[in-house]
Amino acid sequence: MFAEKIINWYLEYGRQLPWRCTDNPYYIWLSEIILQQTRIEQGRSYYERFVSEYPTVGHLANASEEQVLKSWQGLGYYSRARNLHSAAKYISTELQGRFPDTYEGILALKGVGRYTAAAIASFAYGMPYPVIDGNVYRLVARLYRIGTPIGTDRAYAIFEKRLMGLIDRERPGLFNQAMMDFGSMYCRPVRSDCVNCIFSQECLAYRGGVVSELPVRVGPTSVKVRYFYYFDIRWDAPLPTIVVQQRGEGDIWQGLYELPLYETEQPISEVVLLGELRKVVERWMGAVPQSIALKRCMTHRLTHRTIRAQFVQVIFDHKPPKMPEKMRPLELSEIKTIPISRLIDRYLSEL
Ligand code: SF4
């Protein structure tokens, strides 16, 4: 029987991970949100940090958003942290601190989709909901030679139906973990280990010689390029100071701090670049800087965006007479205490 075979494999060879040793739904939820779009090796240290800093959902709910973003710093996709925090507050106030214990209740949490709800329901409560992540899609598409493009609602329904017929209803959590591990360890995107695979006899893709053609994906979405000009504005007296601003709602990195930003639709020509940036900073600060110089150029890739960032360092000999309302001076030594985007962190570290 398929389920028994893959669970037996998992019990012998599956990965030992800290969130697999608990049935606490809060810890499982933390791990699942952290692991979305994150490698296990990187996610592990963040999971341990969150469990230690916020041992219960109440601790997470009572923290400030800035504190949670700071704990999340470096992991990217910051909406995950904001949703986590918002859902913790919802559980704390609306559900009297009790984590929801139905699939629908879990799915109602902000930032929780079908995959995460199925993972929490099966791992924490033993409910027979199949998890369908990239590894599971790949494994099932190949085993049954399913050519429906993944990433669509139609594909989800087809794969879910197939998995409902396979899942071990007594041990759904083990079954789901086994599927994900087997998909990532044997049935890999490239160079699958079909020769040693325990399903090589029944795998339709292997028998048909079409392993590398499955799963089928929908066409790539276009990636938009944005042009960011960041001003690293500083002065030394009376204390080393840098200017920062907080990102607003409705855009990437909401709530994080960054350097003062000038964004353009098109890249500024190199011939006029420094002159134009000088005018911008003089207009903002109401003074002529002591020096202005182009620094690092960096490319930062997000899922549907590529950021081309040019950093320009601006030195004043003392605090300038004015600055736009959203900017604020910060003692340089305090920069480590505020949540900043990975791009800004990279720039400051490289300096
Ligand atoms: S035989 Fe190859 S393609 Fe088929 S399930 Fe095993 S590893 Fe995946």
Structural notes for this entry:
This protein is α+β, with helices and mostly antiparallel strands and 351 residues long. It has two domains: 2-213, Endonuclease III, domain 1, CATH 1.10.340.30; 224-350, Nucleoside Triphosphate Pyrophosphohydrolase (Alpha-Beta Complex). It is built from 14 helices and seven strands. The protein has helices at residues 2-13, 25-35, 40-53, 57-62, 65-72, 79-94, 103-107, 114-125, 134-143, 153-164, 172-185, 204-208, 273-285, 342-350, and strands spanning 224-235, 241-246, 257-258, 261-264, 291-301, 305-315, 327-331. Strands 1, 2, 3, 4, 5, 6 and 7 form a seven-stranded mixed sheet that branches. Helix 1 crosses helix 11 (172-185) and helix 2 (25-35) crosses helix 3 (40-53). It is elongated, with a radius of gyration of 25 Å. The chain starts with a helix and ends with a helix. Iron/sulfur cluster (SF4) binds next to helix 9 and helix 12.
